[in-house]
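ESCALATION

Customer reports they have been waiting on this structure for their group meeting. Please prioritize. Original submission:
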Amino acid sequence: MAVSLEPRRNGVVEFLYWLWEGVDRTIFTAIKFSFPARFVSPFGFLGMLTFIVFIMLGVSGALLMFYYQPILDRAWDSVQFINDEVPFGFHIRNIHYHGSNAMVLLAVLHMYYQYFSGRYKIRNEVLWMTGVILGVVTILEAFTGYDVIFSERAELAISIAASLTTSIPIAGPVIRDAALGSGFSDFVLRFYAQHVFLLPIVMLGLMAVHFPRFLVFDVPMVMAIAGAILITGGVFPIDLGFKFEPTVPPGVTVPEWYLTGIYAFMRTQYDKFVTGLLWPLIFIISFVLIPFIDRYKKFSWRERPIITAFGITSLAQIMVTTYWGFYISPDISIPLVERLVIDPVFFYSVMILLVPMSFGFTYMMIKLANEAERKSKLAKSTGPKKVATLNLSEKWINWLLVALLAFQVFLNIAAYNAAITGMNNISLFFVGLILMVFAGFFHIYRYGMSEQKNAPPAPPVQVSDEKPKLAEPEESSQTEESAKLPEGKTAADKPEEKPITPEVSVPKTQADLGVGADNNPNLGTGDLNKP
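Update from on-call: job pushed to the front of the queue and completed.
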């Protein structure tokens, strides 16, 4: 039994269409949402995925606000209550934490994709600049989020933020008092206000400017990203850490991964303003000004070698410093301060060495890419013309849909059983799998719809080119015909059959021998010789 792939409009679908037509008369008229009928590479709409994760963070953060208490001696305890006592509090907190990491990662990937593809060159300078600033604000939003827990890890981040703002010439102390307050009691409330109100308002304003006119909303990819966040929360559930106690010395810890690069610079014990603020500020300003520095006419990364090499260098330095910020000497026999110190000569020598290595790697990749393109064109002109494709028949599409539905039912039952037994991380993992399976289910459905629209034409009917042959009289056929004659009739009495081909009269040519047609026919050739 075949499954019909024709879309059907029921009451819910009709309501959604009515709602969409009504929204079309609002401010969203200027923004066109595209729901692709085929698979679209997610690199083209990483910005939209970042915005979707931002919405997830807003919803989960609002639910956490019901129970969180921004008070110095209750902040950590309220988070512990959410994690252990509130129904589904463990799930919501893990979604919020891993969603913040996913948003930072997606924002960075989106920025570098736009950078290497040269999208800022098509009159998108304003979009590019607001995007870079939005990425910085995103990191600040995530930074203030994990600080309000007020654990030992948060205490380290608070101490770093306080020392960095104090190191700013002239305006440093004023900025510190405004952002952090005069003590820990003020800090918790001010960071909470920045995290839930001030920074989200700034992000929404930047998004209103940064969004292009056309947005791609791919349902399977949105479900896949949400599922990946939940699966990560199930496999790597976030712990609370130790509660910060002013009278207890803090343990060995590091900040979040998106801040360990700056932390590595600061561990060289050089000037805090230079390592913690000046270098990151130069990095940000250089990226903001890239559209005005890039004078190449082409968009491809292969046609912009210096700009591409600069981007590869920045990526290499970010990855090296991020790893270096996590590394702490395992030798516990030396004091903690010495374990955290990074040799500045070695550190900056590696940073400088990464520049020529990145440029050499870039030019090598450009050469290899050009050679691969040349061989591809040569193989295309001389090789086979057909390209291998994977096309699923209607039967296999139906079987895949049935298999995915059955697997989804199994995952739902498993997630319910895990939730009622208290295995929060397992149930979170199963819910993530449910979303991933739904993403695959939706993509298979979309594939079937597109294949139905592109149905192959009916095979042509073969027409025979042979001409009818005339039946030749044979003895056997004559015998059969005589057997079919009525009694008393013979073959001689059979009426004469007319030939199929009519007789054509052939003109006869007579020689001019002086003999007319009326002459005596008894004359012989010998009479012609008589005088």
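Sent to customer with the following note: The mean pLDDT is 80.
Escalation resolved.
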